Amino acid sequence: MSRCRIKPRTGTSFIIKKGQYLKVTDPEGQQVSDMLAYNAADKREYISSGRSFDYASRIFLTTGDVLYSNRSRQLMTIVNDEVGRHDFTLTPCSKDTFRIIYGDKQPHHGCQGNLERALARHEIEPDNIPCAFNIFMNVDVNGRTGEIKVLPPLSEAGQSVTFRAEMDLIVALTACSAGQSNNFTYKPIDYEVLNTLTVEN
Amino acid sequence: MSRCRIKPRTGTSFIIKKGQYLKVTDPEGQQVSDMLAYNAADKREYISSGRSFDYASRIFLTTGDVLYSNRSRQLMTIVNDEVGRHDFTLTPCSKDTFRIIYGDKQPHHGCQGNLERALARHEIEPDNIPCAFNIFMNVDVNGRTGEIKVLPPLSEAGQSVTFRAEMDLIVALTACSAGQSNNFTYKPIDYEVLNTLTVEN
Question: Looking at the predicted complex, does its ipTM rise above 0.90?
Fold first, then answer.
């Protein structure tokens, strides 16, 4: 498959097969991509932040860490991470996020809206969108107070993270719509589905 | 309603009405209670850690904080918290938790199993059990590395946390089954549903 581009403030979905690789690239730098994954054979099985945190004993996941499902099965493994900082605590930005946090009077539908549209063709309901793996999202966590701050991503132009699918998956990806997440510049996200892993040094 | 007791390593579920209060007490100290909440009128709406973190801008929630649903609506407000430390990042302990983390050969069904049983009578499927609000669970988070450590709860015998229901809710509660969460002593949890709030000083 050739490299695909997700336009700013949009999203997409696709199938990847067990053993294939998904490479997500930030082409311009400082952009976030919310990722969801569902078992293609049974969409009631989906990516679970809580299970993944528990088994990694860490809330920041990187190379070697596994994204687990709600059924405690392995969905994806992070096999190459050029950035090293992603978020897995927050739900996708939405109309309500923009209304409640930003005070927007006519809020954008956000990553939530884009994911809903992208997943509708797989008959996945909006209510079945859990916490996303927010690629490149840089959420500072104060370990004493629990306070979180959404900071500009650490990703530089051209940096990527690559996942191996551990089962056949429906994957949805966005180019994030929230200003706070991407330093108030709405940019695209690139992705490729690969049959073999090539790590450039 | 009189005070009810959840026996060690079990769970329960019940309905609370909008405006009623749920008081959860740790009768012996250092015990955890995993709590889930669903909109009683539409069970597809459920408690969401990601939405709640986003709107609080904090991952440790206490008095005054709101537990939001996946639809960004208010489910419960924490109105009185005598302990001040709870977890909202982890999914309920399960057979798989005990197998993967503890290496148990014949694992207990855990809070997940108890919640599944308690929610079955409301026709809520096991797959629809998200990250729980883990009352009194003390999870240390290293803000630099993201490493998490499950420590003994800070709750002393008789201390409680009280929630106000912001809509009619199906609530499920456990007396936690995981040794790591309760300093390896499996104890009961008490709860009351109250029509008025009485705060003792």
Answer: yes
Instruction: Go through chain B and tell me how many residues it has.
Output: 201
Yes or no: say if A43 and A24 are a contact pair by the CB < 8 Å rule. no
B165 touching A, CB under 8 A? no
Cα–Cα distances in Å, from B64 out to A159, B86, B159? Answer: 41, 14, 18
Distance separating alpha carbons of residues A67 and A87, to the nearest angstrom: 12
Per DSSP, helices labelled H in chain B are 49-56, 95-100, 110-120
Q: Do B101 and A149 touch (CB under 8 A)?
A: no
Considering only the beta carbons, identify the residue of A127, A130, A132 that sits closest to B44.
Answer: A127
Tell me the shortest Cα–Cα distance from A129 to chain B, in angstroms.
Answer: 8
- Find the radius of gyration of the CA atoms of chain A: 16
pLDDT in tens, B27-65: 999 999 999 999 999 999 999 999 999 999 999 999 999
B201 at interface of A, judged by CB pairs closer than 8 A: no
| Contact yes or no for B186/B30 (Cβ under 8 A) | no
Q: What is the dihedral of CA B113, B115, B118, B119, to 10 degrees?
A: -110
Do B91 and A70 lie within an 8 Å CB cutoff? Answer: yes
In chain A, what are the domain boundaries? 4-194
pLDDT tens column, A111-166: 999 999 999 999 999 999 999 999 999 999 999 999 999 999 999 999 999 999 99
**C-alpha neighbours within 13 Å on the C-beta side of residue B104:** 16
Which residues, in sequence order, are bridge partners of residue B43? none
Question: A169 with A76: CB under 8 angstroms?
Answer: yes
B141 φ/ψ angles, rounded to the nearest 5 degrees: -120, 125
The minimal CB distance from B54 to the residues A60, A91, A145 is found for A91
Per DSSP, A63 falls in state T
